[in-house]
Amino acid sequence: MSTFVFPGDPVPIPPTPGKPLKLGPGLLHVPSGDGSDSPDTVIATKPGVLGTNKKRKELWVESNATRYVPAPQESVVGIITNRSGEGYRVDIAGAHTAYLDSLSFEGASKRNKPNLKV
Prior knowledge:
The protein is mainly beta and 118 residues long. Helices cover 0% and strands 33% of the residues. It has no helices and 9 strands. Strand 8 (87-91) and strand 9 form a beta hairpin.
């Protein structure tokens, strides 16, 4: 039976006597850190189906998540990183940054430009 995990979910660690457990993509080992005998935990870092290989003692998360690619004319949320003469450079978490003209705002004119913080 397959187990579906979300980012931040603790992952059940199967007992692995002898050989150490190998963690694959999508999993993160979090040591207990308090010096006690409490067991370490493993958490998921991406959503997907938890995969296991009991013979090789491996755990991983199978996911078909891909990098987001913004398309033209699509609404996105961005962070203004730079101001140039007539516009703003905006980081939209894509491969390239976007350029937003200062006159493209509603009610903006050459005399009345928006003043956005960088």
